[in-house]
Fold this protein.
Amino acid sequence: MKKSEQKPNTKTGDTFKLTRRRALKSGIALTAGGGVAGLTGGYLAGPLAGSVHGQGSDRPIRIGFQVHRTGIGAVYGRWYERTSTAAANYINSIGGIAGRPVEIVPEDDGTDPKRGAEVVEKLAVQHKVDFIYGPLFSHVVIGSAPRAGELKIPYFVVSEGYHVASGKLNRYVFQPGITDVRAQITSISSWVMNNLGKKVTMFFPDYAFGYDHRDYFSAEVKKQGGSIGELLAIPPTESSYTRYFPRIPADTEVLYHVMVGPGVLTFVKEMGEHFGSNRPQIFGFIDSLEGVDIATPGLDFLEGTHLWEAFPRYASSSDTRYSKAFRDAVGVDANGASKDDPKDVATYSHMWGVWETLFVIKEAVEQSGYRSRQDYPALIETLESFEWFNEGMGHPQGGKKFVGALHQCYGKQHISRVANGKLNVVHTTSIDDGMYEPEGDYRTQSL
Amino acid sequence: MISGRTRRIVVLHLAIIGLLFVLQFVLPAYHHTNLARIMVLATFAMGYNILFGYTGLMSLGHAMFFAAGMYGAGLCVYYLQFGAGAAFVLGILAGVSLAAVFGLFALRTTGVSFLIVTMMFGQACYLTLLYFNEITLGDQGFTVSGNLQALHQAGVGFAYSDPDVKFNAAWLVFAGALSISTAIAASPIGRVLIAVRVNEERTRLLGYNTFAYKWLALCVSGAIAGAAGAAYALLFSYVGASFASILYSIYPLLWTLLGGAGTTLGPLVGTGVMFYLIDLTSGWTAAYLFIVGGSLLALVLWFPQGLMGAVRARWARWLP
């Protein structure tokens, strides 16, 4: 990360814990005490790190993990769980949270909003966890968040949905580990307009996730002097797309697609058959292809097209040491697949959010002095005072701006080009590219 | 004069309702809220049971009535800031209205055709919710807690986030549905519905307008399912299209089959057993649905009439 992007963490001007100065101090102090759990812009694990646990407290920090083990989100859930386990192991290896070991308590929500609310109840009331985190799918988040608010337990989602930043949930819900979709769309729009073309036709799923793309990207296109040729909303039950392609205006310069679900393979294949070699520029979101090998037969037509990525799936020489360490810790190879099974492709542009969220919890606990549930108000106010997370082992995707009023973080995004069945990053946005006018302020709600 | 059977039925059902009320004072917090959820979902199953268990009409689209109640109540709170009472009534009206109109078309079919028609209408309703996404916020859904004012009675405010308010509201809805369900089952109308289930042709030959009775059963079923949907939206603060999906048409069928189709208490037993079966097994393994499926198979093999059906067949033939 550039030095110019290093900023104070809190409104009071206190520098964030993960600075080199603090790291050095911590390192010296811990080394003197016989333990090594220093912080070096991030964290370094030491062989005696486990002894640090003894400094803190008698009981572990228990974090409930609401995971999509089954249902439509199972692919994401599998990788979220692996990442969660890796992050917890790593945190424990560097001394836990405030000297206390971390214990993850997973519960499957079946990617169902009804069960999601029940899981929140189970984790908070029966398992008596300190915090809950982990859900991805928007309907599950929106279905579960009210119960978290009623139970007054901090609830950290890793959804990328705009529902948190829109101000429509409650004060106990945070999304500090992954950028929301509105910011993603806003941040990449100018590059797409300036490099691929200004006459855009959009393919998007005909439900709320697709509408976020339709609304926010369309607005950016118009703001930047471009035009929308056609908005093609695809019903979720559609299994063939051939009847939509003739509706693409002939003067379309950019085809924007975000097609989530198994239909994406058919979509790409039929798009290739429709256009042949004479096609417009094509830009899409990796959401469609998370967990899918780009070199899968049938996806050949994506060669030369561009995709948004939050965290580049393929390793490159420009990866930071934190990025490399994260990839290694979660067991992903240079091609973005499991080290144990090259066919098991990771959901690499989302799963890092789980890792970073756990580290935000760690940071909030340590800075607020949280000990038990009665300290929730202090913890929430501390979280809301955060303004910046430094790049490091806690935030391997990059530094993040955090807006306390919206309970939402903002990070850099990447645009990659498909070449030889792989993704190569061609542009990285700045964090400010994705910022927008806030629509709410959770801090006005009572605790 | 009240017969001995009727007295037994009344005493048993009042005892069950009373027991459920008392449980709120002894259950741990987690099971306290679980029971509130179970009572709301059992109300949905009771509505289903009137159509399936008593009248013999198997529906695979009952989620549309639950969703009608849920959206009828939820949209009124979300957009029009209705109070809970008015929203609840509108939820019931939405459920019964949909059932009344739907019945005029669907009840022209029977058997497998009825099953398919209900499934098609159910899917059409689900897709309608997605189609009008800008109003219904379809797949993502919406929360109502921010728009729902606390209930004020005698100068005291009752917030719906309060576990006791949640429990007692769910209990009232359940008690009302069980009372209606039991009254119907024990009444002459209930006997005609059972006659339709056993042999519709013969019932018609006896002079009964079986279409009217089936339509009535569907309307009552839709009203109770709508009440359950409205209660779920208001008490658990979420409205979403997933509740209109086919999964939520299969659930009440499973709950009813498990508990005992054509028994008044079967839906409560089936919903409770299934709820805890999922809750417990999902904590052990991601393959919990395999265990749930195996358990259902075992029940079908050894208790084909469901749990309460088996109780009725072996020990208490007077159970309605």
Remarks:
- The mean pLDDT of chain B is 92.
